[in-house]
Amino acid sequence: TRQDRGGMALLNRKKMPLPHEAREKSMKAADKLIMSSPPAPAPVYSNRFYQPDIMAKIQTGPGLPAWSWKRAELSWNGPVESGQVINLYLASPAMNLAAALLRVTFLFLMAYFIIFREALPAIRLKAGNAAPVISIFMVLYAASSLFSPAHAVAEEFPPQAMLDELRQKLLEPAGCHPGCASIETMTITLDQDGKMELVLQAGAAATTAIPLPRGKAWHPGTILVDSQAPLLFAHEGETWLKIPPGLHEVKISGKLRNAQASLFLPLKPHRAVIHARGWDVEGINPGGVPEKQVQFSMIATKGGQEKAFAPEALPPFVKVRRVIHLGIEWHVTTTVTRLSPKGSPIILNITLLPGESVITDGIQVRNGMVACSMEPYADSMTWRSVLEKNSPITLTAPDTTDWIEDWILQADPIWHIDMKGIPVVFHKSRTGAWHPRWRPWPGEKVEIAVTRPEAVKGPTKTIDSTRLVVRPGLRMTKASLDITARSSRGDSINLMLPAGSRLEAVKINGETRTVRQHGRKVILPLDPGRQQIGVSWHSSGGITSWFKVPQISLGMPTVNSTVELAPGNRWIWYLRGPVTGPAILFYSEIAVLLLVSVILGMSGLTPLKTWQWMLLAFGLSQSGLVAEGLVAAWLLALGLRQRFGHLLKGFRFNAAQSALLCLTLAALAGLVFAVHNGLLGQPDMR
Question: In a 10 Å sphere around its CB, with 0-12 CB exposed, 13-18 middle and 19+ buried, how is residue 621 labelled?
Answer without folding.
Answer: buried
